[in-house]
Amino acid sequence: MSETHQAPRSPRDEIDGIVYFPRLCDKVRFHAAGTLSPDYHANLGSGMDLWTCQFLGVNYSPLADFIRAGKSDAEALAWSREHGTPRTVVELAWWSAFMKTRGFRDDLAERLAQRKAESGFQDRADIVTFMDYIDADEGRI
Q1: C-alpha distances in angstroms, 26 versus 6, 23, 58, 60, 105?
Q2: Per-domain residue ranges of the chain
Q3: Residue 112 phi/psi, 5° resolution?
Q4: Under 8 Å CB-to-CB from 13, ≥6 apart: which residues?
Q5: Residue 141 and residue 132: Cα distance in Å, rounded?
Q6: Cα(53)–Cα(140) distance, integer angstroms
Q7: Could you give the CA distance from residue 110 to residue 133 in angstroms, rounded to a whole number?
Q8: Cα(48)–Cα(127) distance, rounded to whole angstroms?
Q9: Sequence-ordered list of residues with C-beta below 8 angstroms from that of 15, at least 6 positions apart, any chain
Q10: Please, which residues have CB within 8 angstroms of residue 130's CB and are 6 or more apart in sequence?
Q11: How far is residue 122's CA from residue 19's CA, in Å, rounded to a whole number?
Q12: What percent of the chain is helix, strand and coil (3-state, nearest 5)?
């Protein structure tokens, strides 16, 4: 990241059992503040952002508007639960496992291998999921 840009939190960060949600909130806030790297702009509201919104049963745009209004992660999650789909403990566990393993021997494995090669990580055996890749790309691992 440059001095003027901030990296969002790790995709592994969670709030109240919802993995990735704090990162989504960071990306919305940093984009609104002009401190999100342009590398992230094209995918705002898609990919893992979209999957998270789909799991919660909310649309990205109204959630992002709510976050941009100065709401905390906890307030944004409460809003999502109020306006979205209720989830059980079992569904939360499934969601966490699904998100944490994306790219490992699934339909995105080829894409992960491509991204690793583009970033010079092709020899990194410790990068086996997209969450690993994101954390490596942003310098956390």
Answers
A1: 9, 5, 17, 14, 29
A2: 14-85, 102-141
A3: -65, -45
A4: 19, 20, 22, 23
A5: 8
A6: 25
A7: 13
A8: 17
A9: 21, 22, 73, 74, 77
A10: 11, 48, 102, 103, 108, 112, 115
A11: 26
A12: 55, 5, 40
3-state secondary structure of 39: helix
What is the pLDDT, as a whole number, of residue 26?
98
The answer to whether the beta carbons of residues 12 and 71 sit under 8 Å apart is no
**Residue 36 token pair:** 């999100």
In angstroms, the CA 20 to CA 91 distance is: 15
Structure tokens at 64: 């992002």
Tallying the residues shown for the chain, one arrives at 141
Per-residue HEC secondary structure of 94-137 comes to HHHHHHHHCCCCCCCHHHHHHHHHHCCCCCCCCCCCHHHHHHHH
Amino acid at 115: R
Return the number of other C-beta atoms located less than 10 Å from residue 139's C-beta: 8
Nearest Cα neighbor of 64 from 87, 50, 100, 99 is 50
**Model pLDDT for residues 22-71, shown as the tens digit of each residue:** 999 999 999 999 999 999 999 999 999 999 999 999 999 999 999 999 99
